[in-house]
Every structure is written in structure tokens, then in C-alpha cells.
Amino acid sequence: MLSFGSCVFPSVKKNPSLCACPVLFSNPPPSPLCDLILNPIAMTTMEVKLWNDKREREMYDNFGELYAIIKATERLEKAYVRDIISPQEYELECQKLIAHFKTLASTLKDTVPSIERFADTYKMECPAAINRLVVSGVPATVEHRATVAASASTSAAIVAECVQNFITSMDSLKLNMVAVDQVHPLLSDLYASLNKLTILPPDFEGKTKMKEWIARLSKMGAADELTEQQARQLHFDLESSYNSFMAALPNAGT
After folding, report:
1. Comparing 9-18, 49-58, 204-213, 223-232, which segment has the lowest mean pLDDT?
2. The predicted structure's pLDDT at residue 167
3. Which of 189, 188, 166, 170 is nearest to 178 (CA)?
4. What span, in angstroms and rounded, lies between the C-alpha atoms of 102 and 73?
């Protein structure tokens, strides 16, 4: 086994492709390992040197650190998924690893242009780490908070839209706008906005009543008008549905 920095690489004797791989490096440094692998007897009698100067030694040390960061991140992701560590501990450690990774990746950008190819070359099999370090760039806890915040923001906008459509529909009836071509579009907009809100059950009162009224209006002519009794009943259904809607919202009344 060969040690670099704080981690151990697989045996190059078993996998000769791991020595100064020309596929990985854009400018492959000369490596005496390639010659030694072709002469197994020499392996038992000669010292293996991976570098020819200080610059090459530093490069291989950086490879070792990169390897260790990717492996550590993979284990951290698995520990978090299995609930072995708390979200707070996970987020703190993950942020440290991501920061170290970004610094090291920037240093190695000329010799390791692709982290995915680096992982493939050394048979690391760390998909969770690659996703966290390369694709996401933030801890899973931060990612999930952003998703929840975005979802909450979207829901708040839809709630506001529903409230506006309820009030507009009720106000139009108070202003005696009772022609079918005036009422139908308002109820259609209200019904559509209610269907966007996933917190409402399919059989929610407002959805059911608006669907019934839309079907009734669709059978009438555009110039037809609601009778006083029909307008009064529609206003009652709208007000009742609005009250049910407000009561159905999370944290209603708080």
C-alpha cells in the first residue's frame, strides 16, 4: 500500500494504471513506478519514489488530501442519512469539508481538471460525496431549508391569490355584476387558484361549490344574468367557502 498525506492509496502493484495516469493528468509527470512495475523483482529490492522533486511531492500530497476529503465526505453523508449524527453536527463538519475541498480543487485545477475522473481513476465509488462537493456545494441541511423556504414562499403567494379572488368575486356581486360573462371568469380564476394550493383536500367545500357554479353558468348564455335569488345564494356560498378556506390554513388565527 502507498501512503500519501493522511490517506492510503490502493496498491499500485495490483493496479498499474494508478501511477501518474495520463488520462487523469493534463501534464503527466514522469514516474519511476511505471518502470518498476514492469520489473517485479526490482520492487522487492528498490525504494519506490513517486516524485523527482519538491513540486511533484507536493502534488502527490495534495492528491492524498483530495482523496481523503472525498472519502470523509462520503462517510459523513452516509452517517447523516442513517441518523447517526445530528443535523447540527453534520452541517458543521460538512461545511468544513466543502471549504477544504474548494481550496484544494482550486489549487489542483490544472492537474485535476475533473474531480469525477479523479474519483473514477482511483475507483473511489463515492457518489454522495461527488454530489455534495461538486454538484450541490452546500450541506444537505442547508439545501433542504432552501427548498422548504421556497415552497413556503410559493404557498403564501397562492394563498394571497385565493383571498384576492374570493374578495373580488364577492365584491362583484355586491356591485350587481351578475351577467354570466362577468361572473364566470371570476369563479374560474378562484377555482383554479384553489386547485393550486396543495394543503386543501380534493373535497374542500370551496372547490366543490365553485365547480358546481361554473358548471351551472356554462349552461347559460353569456348575456344571461343571475336572478336576485341566485346572486344571493352564490354570495352566501362564496362567503361560506372563504371562511372554510381561512380556517383550513396552517396556524390560522395565530
Report:
1. 9-18
2. 92
3. 170
4. 13
- For helices 87-107 and 54-81, angle between their N-to-C axes, nearest 10 degrees: 160
- Report the alpha-carbon distance of residue 98 to residue 103 in Å, rounded: 9
CA atoms within 13 A on the CB side of 166: 21
Tell me which amino acid residue 134 is.
Answer: V
SS3 62: helix
Closest C-alpha to 37, from 2, 69, 78: 2
Q: How far apart are the first and last CA of the chain?
A: 64
pLDDT(37) > 90 = no
User: What does the pLDDT look like over 142-156, one tens digit per residue?
Assistant: 878 766 666 666 688
pLDDT tens per residue, range 53-74: 888 888 889 999 999 999 999 9
Task: Give the amino acid at 125.
Answer: E
Cell of 92: 458543521
Cell of residue 160, nine digits: 394571497
Question: Would you state the cell numbers that stand for residue 61, as one nine-digit string?
Answer: 500530497
